[in-house]
Amino acid sequence: MAYKHTIDNNLCKGCGLCVAVCPKNVLEISDQVNSMGYFPAYQARPEDCVFCTTCCIMCPDVAITITKVVEEKADQE
Ligand code: SF4
Ligand code: SF4
User: Fold this and answer.
1) Could you tell me the CATH number of the domain that includes residue 39?
2) Number of domains into which the chain is organized
3) Cα–Cα 20 to 30 A to 66, which of 37, 41, 43, 77?
4) Strand segments (E) across 1-77
5) Which residues lie with the beta carbon below 6 Å from any ligand 2 atom?
6) Residue 18: alpha-carbon gap to chain centroid
7) Cα–ligand 1 centroid distance for 36 (angstroms)
8) How far, in Å, is the centroid of ligand 2 from the Cα of 34?
9) Are 17 and 64 in contact (CB under 8 A)?
10) CA 39, CA 75: separation in Å to the nearest integer?
11) pTM attached to this predicted model
12) pLDDT tens-place values along the chain, 77 residues long
């Protein structure tokens, strides 16, 4: 099963909690401001993410989501 990690730039207030709690050091704070004038978190090393959901649980603004990616198989009929 594949997963996808997404940070909503426009919800993130750049508090840095997710960066601090990530056990794999995946996240960093961007140097680009978002639409609210905050510096949002982003996945600097997405290949290291193990989809543990710790960052999602910690985010006070519910800016991070992890979704299952359904791999569709072509019908061979
Ligand atoms: S899901 Fe886990 S490993 Fe991935 S960015 Fe969040 S805290 Fe880090
Ligand atoms: S915990 Fe949430 S609001 Fe704080 S930096 Fe991470 S994504 Fe942004």
Assistant:
1) 3.30.70.20
2) 1
3) 37
4) 2-7, 27-29, 41-43, 64-69
5) 7, 12-18, 40-41, 58-59, 61, 63-64
6) 9
7) 24
8) 12
9) no
10) 45
11) 0.90
12) 799 999 999 999 999 999 999 999 999 999 999 999 999 999 999 999 999 999 999 999 999 999 999 877 766 55
